[in-house]
Amino acid sequence: MIMCVAVVGHQNNPLYLQSFTEADDALKLHHIVHCSLDVVDERVNNPKKSGPTLNETFLGMLYPTENYKVYGYLTNTKVKFLMVTTDLDVKDADVRSFFRRFHAAYVDAVSNPFHVPGKKITSNAFAERVSGIVKSFGPVTTG
Asked: pTM surpassing 0.90?
């Protein structure tokens, strides 16, 4: 189950963060998202030959904790998409599909002529679309 999704700007400024849990967990999830940004920077600035190439946007699992796993996706403009999930066994193909849909929703939201680049995304249509994507992702297990 997806607990939280986030969009973080190229200067690590939060553009959008939505929790799908009770308010008590929201602060903990924000902290987990913030901690995973260091891992994103490390992977982008120190690419390994066996790791993702510069053209690879899916960063894979970034930050596992006892109860959560954080997955990352990086756009060509260095905008980061993060997903915090409680699922222990998630297929990379399913996560890639989720991020492609999430990225498409983001592109539609920032293509709005009234959106100011680099500012928080406040569109209700974007929030509803993200909620729909999260609901369609549902609990995924390997099989």
From this structure: no
13 within 8 A of 138, measured Cβ to Cβ: no
Distance of CA 106 to the CA centre of its chain: 11
Residue 139: pLDDT band (50, 70, 90) is low
Q: What is the DSSP string of 41-105?
A: HHHHHS--SSS--TT--EEEEEEE-SS-EEEEEE-TT--EEEEEE--SS--HHHHHHHHHHHHHH
CATH class as words, domain 2-136: alpha beta
Using alpha carbons only, give the angle 11, 15, 75 rounded to the nearest 5 degrees: 65
Longest dimension (CA), the chain: 44
